[in-house]
Amino acid sequence: MAVPPPVVLLMGPTASGKSAAAMMLAQRFDGEIVGVDSAQVYRGMDIGTAKPSGAERAQVPHHLIDIADPGERYSAARFVADARAAIAGIRARGKLPILAGGTMLYFKALREGLSALPPADAELRAELDAKAARIGWPAMHADLARVDPATAQRLSSMDAQRIQRALEVWTLAGVPLSQLQGRRASGASLGPVVSVALVPSDRARLHQEIAHRFDAMLAAGLLDELAQLRRRHELSPALPSMRCVGYRQAWEFQDGLIDAATLRLRAVAATRQLAKRQYTWLRATDAVRVDPHAEDAAARVAGIVEAVL
Q: What are the DSSP calls for 221-257, one per residue?
């Protein structure tokens, strides 16, 4: 049986140039791009997710973009199933699958399998949301600390999405999330894989680019985009889509909780924190690191992929 073409995993912190690098690889090696982005899956969330433009998608096929409504909860489990189906289709067409994005949990789940956790329970989540509305998420966090102190310790007292999930797992499984996360159900092999990480060595420069990009998003109409989404869908700040960096702060601004200056300050700070977490994830991977700010960055990325084709 012929060996399938490798799967290219192109990862990196936010604003590190992954989209441009993926386009370069797809055009050079006849590939198709699979998004690894927990925000770009949502329809209508274009500006704040730096989604590939229509022109870019016309040049190169993109997958796992605009596949869910912002009122849905897209999960890592769904991503793994969708990504594997996309990879199989790309390989069947004789193309090179290029998975590009910054959602490190999705990369980990795809390669290592998913934690053996109970599936989401909509009724239980509604009960937890109702309780949180009464007592607040800090009190919910205190509840979590009593049953799963290890998970509570690593979560902010306002991290509604993760607190909810941890309490849901405890209620359904009777076992703390921290005990279950190490147990993984591995899936079928992806076949040959080449991993590349775009890791800027100059973090100060990355921080500047993060700020410039958010300013550009505001100028492009991020607030209008969110306003339209809120008119079209039944949304709340607790939904995963609305907890995405940029949208969360824009929501607070539209609800009059913060002013424009604070909106920018908080959004840029949150994006920098996201990048910091992505750096931490990347240190634990086997990816070949390339500084995207280096003059020969594109050539190096192309060379790494070409060497395994």
A: THHHHHHHHHHHS---TTSTGGGSTTHHHHHHHHTTS
Q: Where are the beta strands (DSSP E) in the chain?
A: 7-11, 31-36, 62-63, 96-101, 114-115, 184-185, 193-198, 288-290
Q: Do β-strands 288-290 and 193-198 pair in parallel, antiparallel, or remain unpaired?
A: parallel
Buried b (16+ CB within 10 A) or exposed e, 188-208: eebeebbbbbbbbeeeeebbe
The neighbour count for residue 240, using CB atoms within 10 Å, is 17
Q: Are 120 and 129 within 8 A, CB to CB? A: no
pLDDT tens series, the chain, 309 aa: 567 889 999 999 999 999 999 999 999 999 999 999 999 999 999 999 999 999 999 999 999 999 999 999 888 889 999 999 999 999 999 999 999 999 998 999 899 887 667 878 888 888 898 899 999 999 999 999 999 999 999 998 988 989 999 999 888 878 788 887 766 555 568 889 999 999 999 999 999 999 999 999 999 999 999 999 999 999 998 888 998 999 999 999 999 999 999 999 999 999 999 999 999 999 999 999 999 999 999 999 999 999 998
Neighbours of 169 (CB within 10 A): 25
Would you state the structure tokens that stand for residue 241, as one six-digit string? Answer: 């889509």
The pTM assigned to this predicted structure is: 0.82
Q: Check if the beta carbon of residue 15 is closer than 8 Å to that of residue 200.
A: no
